[in-house]
């Protein structure tokens, strides 16, 4: 029964990490407003999609990180018990006059309280540069 108990103990850790990453994504939504287009390209990379409209430019980044999880045999039921977390994310930055004005997330996650956790890697590098005063949102 120990492997099953260990798996059940890992679930809160996966949820905690995902909740932390979701908070990073939400932090980015606020702190990256005003970031210049060149700085965004520097820290987030080249977007997967771009579009223009009367509302400005839209840069979209898609992220599909590998699912995190563990699997161990549970002899009582003769199979295995698996705890995993899969998620995807699409981040869209709206730019007006070359600056970020809004950030939207479209994400899906298998874990509670981690809706935007897969979006964290897109904004994490930008937040790091802001924290190090290497780029400054205006």
Automatic annotation (TrEMBL):
Signal peptide residue numbers: 1-19
Keywords: Signal
Protein name as it appears in the record: Lipoprotein
Species the sequence originates in: Roseomonas alba
